[in-house]
Each structure stands twice: as C-alpha cells, then as structure tokens.
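Hi R.,

Here's the chain you asked about this morning:
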Amino acid sequence: MSQPRRTSRRRAWTALTLPALLCALAACSGGPASGGGGDGAAPSASPTPSGPPGTLFDAFHYSGPDDPSLAANGWEVRDGAGSPGIKDTWSGAGAGFPTDTTAQGGRVLQLQASTDGTKQGTRQVEVQSTGAELFTGTYAARVYFSDKPTSGRNGDHVVQTFFPISPSDSSANYSELDHEYLPNGGWGSVGSQLDSVSWYKADPPDRVSHTLKQHLGGWHIMMITAVNGKVVYSLDGKELFTSSGKYVPREKMDVHFSNWFIDLPFTGGPRTWEMKVNWFYYKAGEAVSQAEVQKTVDGFYSAGTHHINTVPKS
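And here is the predicted structure, written out as tokens:
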C-alpha cells in the first residue's frame, strides 16, 4: 500500500515565457480552443467553437518540454527539488513528446526515469497541469506502464502514477486521488501491483486504498470518477475501488503524471524506466462512462483537435 510520500514537497518548475504567458491569458479570455504546439499547425476545429463546456482534453502534441504551447495550455515539467522518492532528483530531461505508432494519433507524453543506483545518478520525472481548476467529475487517461526497464537490469522499486492532488500538502482541505503502478512492488511488498488510494491528509497520513496484484505492462485506460460524495477508480472499464465519506475531493486539484523511485535497492549499471501518456480527459462535475470518454476522445482526434480547455475558471 502507498506510504507517506508528499512531505515537504517543493517545486522548481519550468517558467512561463512571455509569449506563453500572453497566450495563456488569451486562452482565459474565452478564445477558441487550440491544437497543441510543436507541428506549427493552425488551431484545430472542435465540436463547437469553444469545445464542449467543462472539458479539458490534451493529446500531447508538443515539440518538447520548452515548447511555449505546453505552458500556454497549462502544463509544467518538474525540474529540481522535493519529494517523493529520491529527494531532489527531479529533471525535465526525462520528459518528451515523441511519435509512437502504438498511440492513438501517433504522439505521446514520454516520462523516462533513470538511475544507476546512486542518488547522483538518479533522475525522476513529472509533468503536471497548472491552475488548480479540477475538482469533481471524471478524470481519464490512456497510460502505458512498463514491467521492465527499457535498458539495464530489472528490479528497481519504481512508481508509475497518474493522480490529481492539492497544490499544497498543508492545505486544510487536502485532497489526493492516486493510481500508482509498482511493477516490482515496494514499501515491503513483492510483485507487480496497482494501488488506488484516496487521501484525507498527507501528514500524518490518513488514506484508504485498494491493491490489485497484477502485471499491467502495456496500454490501459485509467479512470477516476468523483461525484456525489463517492470516488470510483477503474482500469479498462472495470471498477477496482470506491471511497466515500471524508475520502473524497474537498478542494480543486492539479493532475500529475509521474515516474519515480521509492528507493535505490542496488547499484550495478544504469537503467531507464519508461511511462507514456497518450491523452488526458477531464469532465467537470459529471460521471462519464469509459465508452463515452473514448467516443469523445475519438471525436477530438477525428477533428484534429489536440487541446481543449473549457473548464470554468475560479
């Protein structure tokens, strides 16, 4: 089961460039939804001039971590300090947006974490949304998990995760909803497992969880639905776990995709762990089935729409 991992979280993110800031401000003024940057294409058509209301969708069509459209569309790449895992080893070098023939639309967010078993030789990677505008509703992502490193010896206690979380660990209304895949276990567990965890407090930790003991290497649709005082976690359309009572979102959150190491169990040469994200979808305030999510996502791809954000601003 997931252990305390958010203590003293400090962030050093890539800064918004002035053009990106101006672009972001223009998006907030209610302009039409735009495609992601990186291919120089003009803004794409969407089902309506501004896209479906209360919707965030991104297909991660960017040229790289420094693409101004990435920041303009509300994403940050972590670089530098803080927890969890091997503290202060976060690096933007592990984030990329390569083509991928196994992905819908042929493009992915790639998160590569690497280590040689020493802190100095460890690089963790995380990409998150910004603005803390996501609350109740449906969170969905098509995610690729790895059961073994792309290079080097297997055996690391790596965590590949998709989760919405409060901007501050010390918030009185702290909220966090986790899908965490541990291909080699960790925190005393052995074997592949998917932990689904709803948090009430980070410190001292107060949470409820469910563990699925299963190898999950490959592509999966991960969903978290939080409506009507209940959080439902699902994998490829199958419900895994439900939390309620105090274990539900209490404030707006950002969504994170992260690939990191619990500890460093052995030295003996470099190895690289890869996680990929094909697309992310959020619908504010509504429970949406996986079939409807996929239908909507298919429509965006058919229209050539790489990014939409019509989530109401605070």
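One quick note: The chain is about 10% helix and 35% strand.

Cheers,
M.
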